[in-house]
Specification:
Elements: E1 2-6, H1 10-19, E2 24-26, H2 29-34, H3 40-53, E3 58-61, H4 67-78, E4 84-89, H5 92-104, E5 108-113, H6 116-124, E6 129-132, H7 134-139, H8 144-158, E7 163-166, H9 172-181, E8 185-188, H10 190-195, H11 200-223
The structure holds erythose-4-phosphate (E4P).
């Protein structure tokens, strides 16, 4: 299973990378705006900075909504660095553009997926990744995990090579649930990745171990 971080924040990406478990980064226009990145040159520079921090898989999203614009923009994004994956929305135009990039051997991430039918369409178009948004489904009282299970079943039925990139992941338990269901990748904020490590019993257990070690070793020093 691969771990991607869902942010355009260089410090968070650097921290996740230092853990040694990071496989990639996903961004979107909202996340780029959050970092105050605007204008074509600044955006390209920022994507390059992200690519320089990680080993591979940096999803960069197009802003265009028409096929020609998506193709033009996607080619230009892919040109920044070989680590770039062109992120395209699940629309009719986005599907056509996904097909185009697939034929060119350029990796794509089909985003804003909320149904199994949309995921099937992305796989048919040759998407490298399909991004079902779990958290946003849960925001409208819909079970996001059922969607992951349905997509897994469909992709396995036909051996689609498209990878399930579970997105809009909000916490560590989402990552665990996705792992149980066989999602290939999760993308989440740094806090959710760190949340996989944390447990209060680990903290109290370690505190106790160190105290017991210290007590005996202090006594040993007195005996000598
Ligand atoms: C995925 O690629 C998106 O950037 C992301 O996961 C959206 O998550 P959100 O619903 O927390 O904004």
């Amino acid at each position: 299973m691969q771990f991607f971080i869902d942010t355009a924040n260089l410090s968070d990406i650097g921290q996740a990378q230092q853990l040694g478990v990071l496989d990639g980064v996903t961004t979107n226009p909202t996340l780029m705006a959050k970092e105050g990145i605007s204008g074509d040159e600044a955006v390209r520079k920022h994507y390059k900075a992200i690519c320089d921090l990680v080993t591979d898989n940096v999803s960069a999203e197009v802003i265009s909504t028409d096929y020609e614009g998506m193709v033009r923009e996607g080619i230009s994004l892919a040109d920044i660095d070989p680590k770039i994956v062109v992120k395209l929305p699940m629309t009719m135009e986005g599907i056509k553009a996904t097909r185009y990039f697939s034929k060119q051997g350029i990796r794509t991430n089909c985003t804003l997926v909320f149904t199994a039918g949309q995921a099937l369409m992305a796989a048919k178009a040759g998407a490298t990744y399909v991004s079902p948004f779990i958290g946003r489904l849960e925001d409208i009282s819909t079970d996001g995990m059922n969607l992951i299970a349905d997509i897994r079943k469909i992709f396995d039925n036909y051996q689609f090579p498209t990878k399930i990139l579970a997105a809009s992941v909000r916490h560590a338990m989402h990552i665990v649930q996705c792992a149980k269901l066989g999602a290939d990748v999760t993308t989440s904020p740094l806090a959710a990745i760190v949340g996989l490590v944390k447990h209060p019993l680990t903290d109290s257990g370690l505190k106790q171990f160190l105290e017991d070690h210290r007590k005996v070793n202090e006594k040993a020093v007195v005996i000598i």
